[in-house]
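agent: user wants the structure for CMP-N,N'-diacetyllegionaminic acid synthase from Seleniivibrio woodruffii. delegating to structure tool.
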Amino acid sequence: MTDVLCTICARGGSKGVLNKNIRELNGKPLIAHTIEQALETKLFDRVVVSTDSDEIAETAVRYGAEVFFKRDAELASDTAGKLDVIRDAFVRSEEHYGRTYTYLVDLDATSPLRDVRDIRSAFIQCVCDGNCNLITAMPSRRSPYFNLIEVDEQGRVGLSKRLDKSVVRRQDAPKTYDMNASIYVWTRDCILNSGSVFNGNTGLYVMPEERSIDIDSELDFEFVEFLMRKRC
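agent: tool returned. relaying tokens verbatim.
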């Protein structure tokens, strides 16, 4: 398709894993895995990387992405919102390429275990279901109705969510999901006008746990590398 833009947002100031976006993972920089997946889908007119780092930009271009701008400092801080960063990349891309995109797909560089069929299937599902946007998630390992707890201001411990009737087996609890920050699909109107990833018509694409790990720590990095090597 020619009216679909792909963005990959990767800032240089990672804290949990130093320089994680360009750290070598199974033989290539972390961000390269996501760029190659995006290109392999054949869905996108452009694959654009948003970054504040010259080193990340150089790596992204080397693996086939396009980097035509440097992200503003306020959008590369620890407090910058993900949605604002994605929207910025989308608006800049329309202006730079002189065209209007009907859909935007954002892929997180820190979730390299997804595969190409996940990207294609999530996009097709969003289009076919007529969603404003779509997020990806995996089935929760903990349930707020059964074994996910909170502590209130008085120090009292209780379940995060309660039902009228107590749940004695996890299997009987309502289904819940953990967002995996892997794939986001947006219509143009939704990315330009929405203030949240949760809208009245947000779709959900469910992925298995083994393709849903988001690298946020050294342990995550080692686990992802283990799983990648196991696939080979």
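agent: one observation worth passing along. The chain has one domain: 4-140+176-221.
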